[in-house]
TrEMBL record:
InterPro entries from the UniProt entry: Enolpyruvate_Tfrase_dom, Enolpyruvate_Tfrase_sf, MurA_subfamily, RNA3'P_cycl/enolpyr_Trfase_a/b, UDP_GlcNAc_COvinyl_MurA
Organism encoding this protein: Desulfonispora thiosulfatigenes DSM 11270
NCBIfam families: murA, PRK09369.1
Keyword Cell cycle carried by entry: yes
Protein name: UDP-N-acetylglucosamine 1-carboxyvinyltransferase
Catalytic reaction annotation: phosphoenolpyruvate + UDP-N-acetyl-alpha-D-glucosamine = UDP-N-acetyl-3-O-(1-carboxyvinyl)-alpha-D-glucosamine + phosphate
Length: 420
């Protein structure tokens, strides 16, 4: 089992290249199924989740080549429509192949993605939308079997009960090859959905409105080859911003579109961090006085749940009390007991965490219970006194490309070791 050993105290400086976004590349790789041709996808990060998606596409019959950061997906000879339990358990985003499979083959069978560490995460909104498009759904023995009723998906008006990112993406992909117009209202507005729209439109789809809460899709009969570059990962960027802030460092993030993380920037500025726009990137300069702030996670453009644990590490050493309310996932405070082991003063009351800033954190043995919880512990380790050992780091590798190498290049003392 691999672990990270971190010795805190080094201020970070230099520049870091931000990778392609996990949450953009996963739906876009699924969308490659819609074409009967070759999709060339650039700026693909080497993440565990991307390896899982590659394995899944190959299992469905796609030919996938991965050279450097470019992935070529040839879906012309695809022939399989079932996603086994193992792949769904390793990565929830595997369920994003459902829309493309229904659109192209009229059938899909996936193992039901049960709950995961951060919450229940049902897919009822995806299924409700598919039903409106004429899909018959059978849920039995832990599987969802879906079949297009009358031979083709029909465009429909779908109003989501909640702006679910995955449901918006799955339905957009299905609707691209449906007959007629689909209107998704109360759609999620994340930048990764705009990237998916751009990818699909470059393949010949007719979609407009991504980035707003109404997305209109006019179905087309086929989609062709495409070349597309994945947008930068705003959550990876935010994580490095906090690394700079926590260590009172001075770090330039390269290859980022800062308009995508206004909510993160705004909170960091409230905390006292200096953020400067520079050529093709932004510079982050830490502060001696981390001011407390209150945060509530909400759908984009609000404050992202995927940054909540990392902000909690920063607020643990603020000069006062902060409150973080988590409204997206019901169980996303698993980093709290681990931060407490490191000397943080945090109490959880329902969906809120009350964080009383302490003077300093202490190194400890802690466990990454999920992806962002793991990132938060690395961040805490960067400023803690003495040594922090983070285990279960396979969670972190799901969504951060070479986080240890990138941090080391900025001056952090972090090492990946294999040890029991
Ligand atoms: C691969 C990817 O892009 N993952 C992101 C995506 O996950 P994901 O697409 O799973 O997130 P959703 O927006 O769908 O989920 C948000 C909330 O809605 C609930 N829900 C969702 C669908 C559904 O059918 N029924 C239902 O009740 C979920 O349980 C959760 O409480 O958006 C989340 C919210 O920004 C991020 O944290 C994830 O990093
Ligand atoms: C929750 C996350 O991802 P996923 O939806 O892939 O589990 C995340 O990126 O923080």
């Amino acid at each position: 089992m691999e672990k990270f050993i971190i010795v805190g105290g080094n201020p970070l400086s230099g520049s870091v290249e931000i990778s392609g976004a996990k949450n953009a590349v996963l739906p876009i790789l699924s969308a490659a199924i819609l074409s009967t041709d070759i999709s060339v996808i650039k700026n693909v990060p080497r993440l565990k989740d991307v390896y899982v998606m590659k394995e899944l596409l190959e299992l469905l019959g796609c030919k996938v080549e991965w050279l450097g950061s470019t992935m070529k997906v040839d879906s012309s000879k695809m022939n399989y429509v079932e996603v086994p339990d193992d792949l769904i358990r390793r990565m929830r985003a595997s369920s994003l192949v459902m829309g493309p499979l229904l659109a192209r083959f009229g059938r899909a069978k996936i193992s039901y993605p049960g709950g995961c560490a951060i919450g229940c995460r049902p897919i009822d909104l995806h299924l409700k939308g598919f039903k409106k498009m004429g899909v018959e759904i059978n849920e039995k023995f832990g599987f969802v079997e879906a079949k297009v009723h009358s031979g083709y998906l029909k465009g429909s008006d779908i109003c989501l009960d909640f702006p679910s990112v995955g449901a918006t993406e799955n339905l957009m992909m299905a609707a691209s090859l449906a007959v007629g117009e689909t209107i998704i209202s109360n759609a999620a507005k994340e930048p990764e959905i705009v990237d998916l729209q751009n990818f699909l439109n470059s393949m010949g789809a007719k979609i407009q409105g991504a980035g707003t809460d109404i997305i209109r899709i006019t179905g087309v009969s086929s989609l062709h080859s495409v070349e597309h570059s994945i947008i930068a990962d705003r959550i990876e960027a935010g994580t490095f911003m906090i690394a700079a802030a926590l260590t009172k460092g001075n770090v330039k993030l390269e290859n980022v579109q800062s308009e995508y993380f206004e909510a993160i920037n705004a909170k960091l500025r409230d905390i006292g961090v200096i953020i400067l726009e520079e050529n093709n990137g932004i510079r982050v300069i830490g502060t001696d006085n981390v001011r407390p702030v209150d945060i509530k996670t909400i759908p984009y453009p609000g404050f992202p749940t995927d940054m909540q644990p990392q902000f909690m590490s920063l607020l643990s050493i603020a000069t006062g009390t902060s409150i973080i309310s988590e409204s997206i996932f019901e169980n996303r405070f698993m980093h709290v007991p681990e931060l407490i082991r490191m000397g943080a003063d945090i109490k959880v009351e329902g969906r809120a965490a009350i964080i009383k800033g302490v003077k300093h954190l202490n190194g400890a043995n802690v466990s990454a219970t999920d992806l962002r919880a793991g990132a938060a512990l690395i961040l805490a380790g960067l400023v803690a006194k003495n040594e922090t050992i983070v285990d279960s780091i396979y969670h972190i590798d799901r969504g951060y490309e070479n986080i240890d190498l990138k941090l080391r290049k900025l001056g952090a003392n972090i090492e990946r070791v294999s040890r029991n």
